[in-house]
Amino acid sequence: xxxxxxxxxxxxxxxxxxxxxxxxxxxxxxxxxxxxxxxxxxxxxxxxxxxxxxxxxxxxxxxxxxxxxxxxxxxxxxxxxxxxxxxxxxxxxxxxxxxxxxxxxxxxxxxxxxxxxxxxxxxxxxxxxxxxxxxxxxxxxxxxxxxxxxxxxxxxxxxxxxxxxxxxxxxxxxxxxxxxxxxxxxxxxxxxxxxxxxxxxxxxxxxxxxxxxxxxxxxxxxxxxxxxxxxxxxxxxxxxxxxxxxxxxxxxxxxxxxxxxxxxxxxxxxxxxxxxxxxx
Length: 280
Description:
Blueprint: E1 3-8, H1 15-21, E2 24-26, E3 29-32, E4 35-38, H2 45-54, E5 60-62, H3 66-78, E6 83-88, H4 96-105, E7 112-117, H5 122-137, H6 142-154, E8 156-161, H7 166-170, H8 176-184, E9 188-194, E10 197-204, H9 207-220, E11 224-231, H10 237-243, E12 254-257, H11 260-266, E13 271-277
Parallel strand pairs: 1-2, 1-6, 6-7, 11-12
Antiparallel strand pairs: 3-4, 3-5, 8-9, 8-13, 9-10, 11-13
């Protein structure tokens, strides 16, 4: 059986890694006012942050259509795929998973398509897709590829440090009073993805403390199977890399950028970490 992997652009999966394993990335859309752009195709990470720096409006994101997923599935079927595993952005944060599920239902007479909810974001989702693709490239069948992805999800943690609460306030995900108080007190929250939603994990009074706290969480989580470090235009990202330079993982370290989908809500200066603990 030839199994292929699909994910969406909220995964922040580096394109070169996706290409190397034949992973197809279905893009979400990003709107700046009346202008709608296709992530990765019409809007690069660099262009997104450049637009953010001059735009008076907070960008918005939109899920791919079922047709976009159907097109990806059709292409892989035409290329000889016997089975397809699609790993999506958390269904609790986006309609992306349902769009993929609708497309999968329309394919049931042609090819087996299994849609997996990552219950995660950014490279948490990306690490699931990578694990699935590596299993598929090793010749594993559909059920085994799914089992590998689900095992990865069970051992997955995604955390981050936000530099500002402004994007969360403007996106309606935190009240104005709380955002104002947080800014006044210079709070730099540490967030964590829990059961598919983003929760506040810790409040730190300075940026330096928040980065040290996050680095310690990574260090305490070992031994690690996979580790990814992500940057959203953070000037101190190099400093954070130094804080976790001694952390090792069984699979190669992934260093990437937070793209438009997650960057819209997290804001500039965010530093993210995703890791998969080794099996106990």
